[in-house]
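CORE FACILITY INTAKE
Project code: CF-77B
Contact: R.S. (postdoc)
Sample description: multi-component assembly, two entities in total
Requested service: structural model of the whole complex
Turnaround: standard
Below are the sequence entries exactly as provided by the requester. Do not edit them.
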Amino acid sequence: MNPPTPPRRRPGGRTARTRAQVHDAVLAELGEHGYDGLTMDAVATRAGVHRATVYRRWGDVGGLLADVLDAASDDDWRPPDTGSLEDDLAALNQEIQDAMTARPPIMAALIAASFRSEQAARAQQRLWEDRYTRCEIVVARAALRGELPPHTDARRLLIAATAPLYHHLVLLRTPHDRLLPRHAARTAALAAAAGAFAKPPPTSGA
Amino acid sequence: MNPPTPPRRRPGGRTARTRAQVHDAVLAELGEHGYDGLTMDAVATRAGVHRATVYRRWGDVGGLLADVLDAASDDDWRPPDTGSLEDDLAALNQEIQDAMTARPPIMAALIAASFRSEQAARAQQRLWEDRYTRCEIVVARAALRGELPPHTDARRLLIAATAPLYHHLVLLRTPHDRLLPRHAARTAALAAAAGAFAKPPPTSGA
């Protein structure tokens, strides 16, 4: 859910440094020029890496984007922990809104690129899967606090809470609404309390 | 929300017939080849219309797509009227799911094209605005039946009900889930009954 950021420099030698430089260059080029302006040569030049290395290692622009997206999961991001379900979801939605409206529009450009490259699309799916999985603890904590009915389906709740953000910001492209993160969070929390995300309880008597 | 379909032939002379032929050709080309395979020349050939006419009237591929999307509003589509809010929303979501997963994938291709052409993106926005406006009667009828608290914000309710469909089908690209239309409808209906879409919105902790 949080924006892909340039991977942190890690100790790890020349290969890791090259990868980090190339990722930084991809994000910078994408932010400045969008998918249509993203070329292997521009990335190589900006990264200060041999063209041959970039072609050999990443193949094409789709391969570059997929690697950037996969690297975005390689961080220690955790969802907010505010002490209430609605506030956790609102803080999460605020992160999404901030990322989607950031300048340069890197996250928006990555999502747009996923409509151009099948490889990038699959990597974007993996990144969302990673983020939603990490967010399941928000629902687990709310259940432990007694805020939720038993057997609440965490994934469905999280999708319901965040989907209006993506719908407004990516597809409907509506004007900025600073209340949107809170509204969507509150809607999902109210629906959850009303049992909207109940899973059929286990049938085995467990 | 329903898929753009080839506009019905109307009496209206040669200009209207040409437009209808060109729209049909755009949808067919888009369904077969996607945005990347959509060219002015292929559309002209398929429509049996002079290339010069197509260029003069629509300018470029973005202009063609925008006109197709604008024409999609020129129909008599109405939202379902089943007698209950949840069922209306579920039927609406079913229409969205059917349209988004149809073969050839015309609606999906139009949405993808909106990331390529600013003109198509604005037309897609107008189409959604038209559809959501037409759907507001679903909420008005539910209010008259006493299913909703007074002063329910119809647009926010409709976005909440439909956003999970678009999020799953357009962005997350998750496998087909036949329960999704009903789940998203029930979630929105439960949230609405709990006052999630009250105008003015409830303040947090109220």
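Facility notes:
- Chain A touches chain B at residues 86-87, 111-112, 114-116, 121, 124-125, 128, 156, 159-160, 162-164, 166-168, 170-173, 179, 182-184, 186-188, 190-191, 193-197 (CB under 8 Å).
- The first helix of chain A runs from residue 13 to 33.
Invoice: internal transfer
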